[in-house]
Structures are given as C-alpha cells and as structure tokens.
Input
Amino acid sequence: MNTRICYFLGSILLLFLIPEIAKSQDFLKGSEVHGSMQADASYYLTDPGTGITDSTLDGKLIRMNAFTEVNYSLGNFTAGMRFEAYLPPLIGYDAQYNGLGVPYWYVNYKNDFIDITAGNFYEQFGYGMMLRTYQEWTLGYDNSLRGIRVKVMPVKGITFKGVYGVQRNYWEPFEDYNRGIVKGFDADFFLNDIFTSLNDAKVKLTLGGSFVSDYQQGSTKDIPYNGQILELKMPENVSNYGGRFNLNIGDFNWFTEYAHKINDPSARNNYIYKNGDGLFTNLSFSKPGLGISLMSKWIDNMSYKSDRSVTNNMVNINYLPSITKEHTYALASMYPYSTQPDGEVGISGTVTLHFRKNSALGGKTGLSVAANFSQVNGIKKTPVNDTTMVGQIGTAGYTSTFYGADNIVNYQDANLEVTKKFGKKWKGIFTYLYQTYNKDVVEGHAAGDYGTVYSQIGIADVAWNITKKHTLRWELQGLWTKQDKGNWVAGVIELTISPAWFISVMDQYNYGNSMSSERLNYYTLSAGYTNHTTRIALSYGRQREGIICVGGVCRFVPATNGLTLTVTSSF
Amino acid sequence: MMKAIRILLLLLSVSTITLAQENIFTYNKLPSVKLKTVKGLPFISDSITNNNKPVIISFWATWCKPCVRELTTISDVYDDWVEETGVKLFAISVDDSRSTTLVGPMINGKGWDFTVLLDPNSDFKRAMNVGPIPHTFLLNGKGEVVFQHTSFAEGDELSLIEMVRKLNRGEEVK
Output
C-alpha cells in the first residue's frame, strides 16, 4: 500500500515538475506528437434472406474494432504505442481478438550510422520470402515482432539489419515458449554507392542476403493419426535463408529473390519432413508511354510460422504474395486468388500503354490501356517411394523438381482495362476480365467438391464532372458464369462534393442463382463526411459473404446485415 | 490498476509539456525513412525537397481506385501547375511486394510525370501516421506540413493548387 502511495505522489510530482523543467531548460524543444485512430462499429440485424437469425448474432448486436496510435518524437528519438479494442470483434474477424490492450509499443533511436528499436516493430527483408512483419487493419492482420531490432549503416550503400523477438498472436502473451523466438539477419549492398567509380555508371546493382531462424521448444510432438498417437521428432530450430539482386540498366529492371527453408514439419504441411524453396523473379521495362512487367514465382513447401501448430493466417514469419493482379471492383474481386504456400508455380505479365493527348490514338484527351495475364498451377509432387502417399504425415512428404508444374490450374486471369476521357467533363474506365478459379484448391476443399468456376466479367465505371466540385460516378458490372452461384449484376451510383461529402448507393444482384430463394439483392447505402484528415462514414445494407484479400493475406467474411459507422482520423 | 494510473499520469505530464510548446502537432520536418525509387535505388524521405518551393506528397497504391483517380486528375494539369507555381509532387506508393514491380510500368503506362517513390513495408506511411489512402500532405517552402487531407473527390485538386498559390504569395494556409 505504501509503495502505491509513493508511486502516486511521485507521479503527481512528475506531472508538475516536468513542464517546469521543460520550460526552464528548453530541452524538449522540437518535440512532435502525432497519431492516428480508427473506429469501426456495427449494429447487426437479423436477415432471413441470408439466414442470419437471433441465435447467429448471439445477442452481440453491437460490435466494434478500434485503435488509437500516438507517436512522440524528439530529435533522433521516437516512441509510440497503439491501443486496440475489439468489443467484441466485428463479424468476420477472429474471436480471439476479443478484448483490449496495448499490443504495440516501441522506443527508437536513430542517426546516420545506427537505428535501434526496442519493443514492437515491422520489418521486411528484401521481397519478404524470408521475413516480413506488417499490419493490415482492415484484415485484422498483425504479425509484428516484439523484441530488439538494430540497423547499422557503416558506409554509404551498406545496410545490416538484425532482429530478435517473438511475434504477436492476437492477445496471447509469450510465456513458457508457447511460440517460437525469431532471429534474423539481413545485409544489403548497393554497389554504385559503395564504389565511387561506379557512382555514375549506367548499370545499377543491389545485392542482398538474409538468414532467419525460428526456435520453437519441443523436440518431439504427439500427433493423433488413424486412431493412434504418432510421436514425431521436431527440429527445434528452423532456418530460412537466401539472396536477392536488383539489376537496373536504363529502362530495364531485373529483380530476383531465392529462399531455401530447411525441413519444417507443421500442421500447415501435415507434418512432413521436406525442405522448402521459393523463387521470385521480375523483369520490367518502362519508358514514358510504355510499361511491361513479367513475373514468375515458384513456391514449394514455404509456409514459415513461429508456431508450427497454427494453421490460420497468424504468426507468419515470411510473406508469400500472390503474383496475380489485385482487383477492387466488387464483382472482379468475387473470386480472388491467394498464394498456396504448400506449392504453386505461376507467371504473370502486364503491359500498360499511354497515348498522349493530341496523338493519333490518344485523340484530344489521351488514352490509357492496361492488359494483364496471370496463371498459377499446383506443383508436381511425386511419392518418395511405393508405400508412401504424397504428403503423408511423418514422412519426407514428396519429391518435386524445380519449376515442375502439375496440370491443375489454381487460377487464371486475363484482363484488359481502358481509361479514356471524353471531353472535359466525362471520364470512363472500361474493364473486361476472364477468370478461372479453382474453388477446391483456393478455399481448401476436397478435390471435386466444388470444382472450377469460369467467369466473364465486364465493368463500366463512368464519372461525370457536373460542376468543378460535384461529380457523379456510376459503375455497371456484370459477372457471367455457369458454375457456383451463377450470374451477377451490380450497380453503383456515387455523388461526391469536394472537399467534404459523398453519398453512394450500391446493389449486387445474384439473378442467375440456380436456387430461386438465393437470388438475393445485396444493397448498401452509404454517406460520408471528410474534414482534413477526419473521415466519418455511415453505411447501411447487406454484405455478401466472400473473401477479402489485401496483399498476400485473405480473410473470409460471412454475410451480414446492418448499420456500420467508420471514423478515421490522424494528426 | 496502479500501473494504469501511472501510465495515464505520465501521458498527462507529457501532454502538459507538449501543450506548452508551439507547433507540437505539426510536422516541422519530414521523418527520415528509407524509400526506393521505381528503379530500385535508395532514396531517403527527408530529401523530399523543392528549392524552397511548396511540395505535395500523396500516398497511393496501384490497387487503390480513388488514389489512381486523384493522380490521373493531377497528371492532366501537372505541367501547368509546375509552370505556374513551381510546385513538385511526390507520389508515395505503399504497394507491397505483391505489386511494387507494377508501379514503374503503371506510371509510365499512365504517362505520369511526377516523382514516384516506393514504400513497400509502409515505413514512411507509418512515420507520417497515414491511415486510409489516398492521403495528401502539402508542405511549404520551409518543409513544414501546412495541410493534410484524406480521401479524394474531383475538385479537391483545385483547392490544393489554390493553397499552393497562397503559399507562394506568403499567405497562411489552413
């Protein structure tokens, strides 16, 4: 009790003293405080159409996800923290988020030579196949490391990074080695800065290498299998290492990263003892008016988590983004692809063209065209011997050959986008897509459960500047398929009044569903107000179930109906 | 409980100090964060400058439709803006490694003439406390942030260039 009083009095003293010290000594001159916040709150309604009943909602009619982050800086020193509250988490977010607290805080000191962080941090080595920690609020994704990070820049052009810590897993504290300890080292060399003779060379070369290791306690693990318990030996230290280069010659750029992971039996790969490999390469050419990008990716058993028993999206140490194009129109993103870390091989190509105004093809206002194609297949897996099935638990799993694809197409997407201005007041974006979506593979169903969905999608997105400040925009979208839920049409009408207001109406109608009771309208009415960095938006409507993807991570969202308020602000 | 009170008091004392100072909530200079050019070359964020003339910084991504609309709209008038006011636009792409390699081809394919930089793990975005994109900053000739705005509606670009003109005339911008 006495200590409590001491703390209290001490704090009071501090409260009054610090400003005095600050004023008299001016040592806090140059301090800055910045921050941001977001609150997403929903009021959920029952909806017989989508099967949402009182028991589905379980009395939790109002739900909210919210955070506030504050950062303080003074000279070379920065500190900050983020408070999060999920009371309870919105529908579609993992229930393990339920609760509130400060999952993120850090202090950082940085000068031209060294950069030290204690606490939580987000870091990426190269392309990310060995290590990437990041946060994506809208997805409910955060795999930040808590520990120590040191970056050293001994000479211009050379950066060394070291990280050491444990990853965030919802609110679960790190205790009794309940997940792995991650250590990583990365070196990056930009040769043109290191060697003065190369400073002005036309060829620019960057080389890099990373080594990451995860320690998870437990040299054996008991796995139930066919009514018995298998006792499997576990590698307590799993390393993932590799290298990368970026070569730039004028308008050409070539980037490649290769990663190799030692055998890492986990719930995700059905506890097989097989090494993992990953290769990503991109060649691009671009000059004013023309851009070309070619990508290819090989992934074989590359899931890398700091807890081998986790099968959902959390505690990923590395990042394996999809090389397919990310779509944001409602119907174009109905069947999104996400990387299959157990194995996939893919290619992707994009060409963008711009015809300047007053050119033959550009007309008076210019014309932009973008074409993209991508295809991802599974990899060919061969049994290790006659008595072992591919991927059988507790075995070497399978053998594969580098870039050996099987004939199962996971996903294919061919799309064309044309952007054109008509006079001073009209602008249009017209998109056509043909998508092939292997629902069984992408959503993790047994082969043959749902099969593959082939869809054609057409979208017209037209904006009309009524006045300098008023714009009316509408979208007309159609998706045609003989599989899954059949055909859809969607429409959006949106009015924006610069700089503050917007109001929009949207409807998605599943008119082609083979079940007449499921030919539903998914309508949304929303309005919002923006003042500087504060934005308040209110929407009412029915949300269709689906998969939301950002970058390499996707999240399943069940159907909902209700009212949603979103407030964001920063300073 | 005691711990919570102590933290609260500490926060209070910090805020008392901060309130006693001027411009505590203003970016007096840009944080120093490592970015990359679209050619993959290093670029430090505090070298975003424009010879004592105003600077616009816009956070965007290739997959963000309103962002692309904003930059396309500005691109149509950018030459006139530069000629009239000397303003310079830096567009910071927060595309992660899924789409960073598409940024270069896209800006050329769209015919954008302003400087585009890559922030693949959102380090600069975090340092500038940016939430949803598009998010635009306006800096005066001294490199201080004088205006920020989230989201884009056609017509916002007119208010933005009007503020640049005000800065050039030495007037205050709010």
